[in-house]
Design a protein that fits this description.
Elements: H1 2-9, E1 13-14, E2 20-21, H2 25-132
Antiparallel strand pairs: 1-2
Coiled coil: 80-111
Protein name: IFT20 protein
Keywords: Cell projection, Coiled coil
Length: 133
Amino acid sequence: GMAQAALGAAGLHFDELNKLRVLEPEVAAQTAQLREECRAFVDKTAEFQKIVGSLIELVDQLAKAAENEKMKAIGARNLLKSIAKQREAQEQQLQALIAEKKMQLERYRIEYETLCKIEADQNEFIDQFIFQK
């Protein structure tokens, strides 16, 4: 007992296997427990980093997908704009064609009226000629 006390005073201790130790058995046990807790904490941290990594990857994929959809939408919008412009151009061409045909119709109408007048005059002349005989 006295030898053990003297050793204890010198900071030396026997463990459960009667090996000479610098640390008290209780402190050694606490140290081992702390080491295990640290190992568990490091494992959990690594697992957390993995989860965060895969989350970041997922967010990146979503961002890329969103960017692709945005590009598709811009493409579709531009296509619609160009189609609208084509329609507008076609409409203007058709309006010009309609105006041209209206003018042509007016010329034909005047020509027809003139021919009708000539026909009436000729018929009148023929009638007078027949009656004179």
